[in-house]
Amino acid sequence: MELYGSSRVVEGGELSIGECAASSLIQQFGSPLYVYDESFIREQMRKYRRPFDERRIPYQIAYACKALCTIGMCQIAAEEGLYLDVVSAGELHTALASGMDPQHIYMHGNNKTQAELELAVTCGIGMIVVDNFYEIELLREILETTGRTIDVMLRVAPGVDAHTHDFIATGRQDSKFGFDLASGQVENAVRQISTCPQMIFVGLHAHIGSQIFDVEGFRLAAERLATICVSLGHQFGVTISRLNLGGGLGIRYTSDDTPTPIETLVNSLIDTVQDAFAKQKLALPQLMLEPGRSIVAQAGTTLYRIGSRKEIPGVRTYVAVDGGMTDNPRLALYGAKYEAALANRMNDPVEELVSIAGKCCESGDMLVWDVQLPRANPGDILAITCTGAYNYSMASNYNRIPRLAAVLVHEGKARLLVRRETLDDLIRLDVPLTVS
Ligand SMILES: Cc1ncc(COP(=O)(O)O)c(C=O)c1O
Q1: Which residue from 182, 298, 189 is spatially nearest to 249, judged by alpha carbons?
Q2: Which of 106, 380, 395, 396 is 20 to 30 A from 222, alpha carbon to alpha carbon?
Q3: Does residue 113 lie within any of the structural domains?
Q4: Are residues 205 and 345 in the same domain?
């Protein structure tokens, strides 16, 4: 298993993260447990900013907090000079509760409700990324009623198919997100927005997919967006001051994944956008990126206790842990692959090929299909790496399993990001039937 950030094997063959031993973390906070490496998260954020700072190019990096949305994470983003991309009232509420400057928050979503847009407008967020014609009308009414003004960007579906898994690709023409570029919807949207003086049109957005390893898809998207900018300039006299290329940079979940390092890719992205806009004789807009996965995925490790095992001679050995698809649904959802190791016996020789199963009543509740481990015994600690993104945020209470605690580790200190749900938390919203 490859180790990232501050993860090390220390004396006694134990895994330590942020100078905290896996066994001590579980002893203090219980099992299973999400562990986040704070310095790794901060360094990933800095890797996005550095190329822009070095080249003195105007930019805005927003953390796409859908990847891991907690108050503490929003605080870290603010401390590192990042903005926040939110997609729901819940994410917005979390961001505001963290003390984030509302002007540094912007909102996405393909079906923002009236209540969400009202909240976004009245709390004074910096920008709304408008996704469709229905939303333009909703927003127009809200702005007229409240007398407010807001910056808007249009989400465009540029018809780019980035290298990524089919189920999580969003940049194709056949997508539920954004205005279709090919059929002229972008021009129509700008026309509608230009009739509402309270909507200030600032630019275009495209998110072309997830787990992308190279710049090619972004290049194509940037070229298409630059072309449409020329057409918008001719038709409506508008100039684009911001260009948002979304998130999507890939990470190394297993040794099969070979992403380009963040700083290299960001530098290529800058070159690409510069070229695309120069070719069209357009001024370079402020470049915006909104990474999620590449900020937090590799900084997260989930620790579990091993329990039962089932050996099917000649077929497979299942080793079960005390969590599963409730804390990490990514294998069940789209076949995600992970690496794993026994955190309390990192130096022991590998003895068997096993499959790691969860404890839910669902055959698809698997965490890793094939992993080589030392003989795994009940009570051993299993670590699965790269579980920082879209794990806690996609967690569920299926089978009424409480959601895990999450801790942030750094230099031997562990701080709670999220406390563990209790059994009482699980029934907190239930309403017992009364006899009438
Ligand atoms: C609009 C938008 N921006 C940013 C992101 C973050 O993507 P990633 O976590 O792959 O960087 C997503 C993810 O779905 C998205 O839909």
Answers
A1: 298
A2: 106
A3: yes
A4: no
On whether the pTM is more than 0.85, the answer is yes
Atom of ligand 1 nearest to the CA of 168: 14
Annotation marks residue 360 as catalytic: no
Same domain, 244 and 322: no
* Nearest protein CA to atom 10 of ligand 1, as residue: 248
**Tally of structural domains, the chain:** 2
- 432 domain-assigned: no
CA of 172 to the centre of ligand 1 (A): 14
C-alpha Rg value of the chain to the nearest Å? 23
Looking at ligand 1, which atom is closest to the CA of residue 390?
Answer: 9
Output the CA 248–ligand 1 centroid distance in Å. Answer: 6
Residue 29: pLDDT band by 50, 70, 90 thresholds?
very high
CATH number, domain with residue 337: 2.40.37.10
Please give the DSSP secondary-structure letter assigned to residue 420: P
Q: Is 131 in the pocket of ligand 1 (CB under 6 A)?
A: no
Whether 73 and 101 map to the same domain: the answer is: yes
Assess contact for 69 and 418: CB atoms under 8 A: no
Nearest atom within ligand 1 for CA of residue 212: 10
Any ligand 1 atom below 6 A from CB of 246: yes
> What is the domain-level CATH number for residue 289?
3.20.20.10
Gap between the Cα atoms of 255 and 338, Å rounded: 9
pLDDT above 70 (res 171): no
Q: Which two tokens stand for residue 80?
A: 């590192």
Mean predicted lDDT score pLDDT of the chain: 95
Cβ neighbours of 135 (radius 10 Å): 22
Asked if the structure places residue 3 within a domain, the reply is no
Which structural domain range is residue 379 located in? 8-30+299-427
pLDDT at 375 over 90: yes
pLDDT score recorded for residue 163: 65
Tell me the per-residue pLDDT of 422-434, one tens digit each, with 9 for 90 and over: 999 999 999 999 9
Does residue 362 belong to any structural domain of this protein?
Answer: yes
Cα–Cα distance, 231 to 245 (Å, whole number): 19
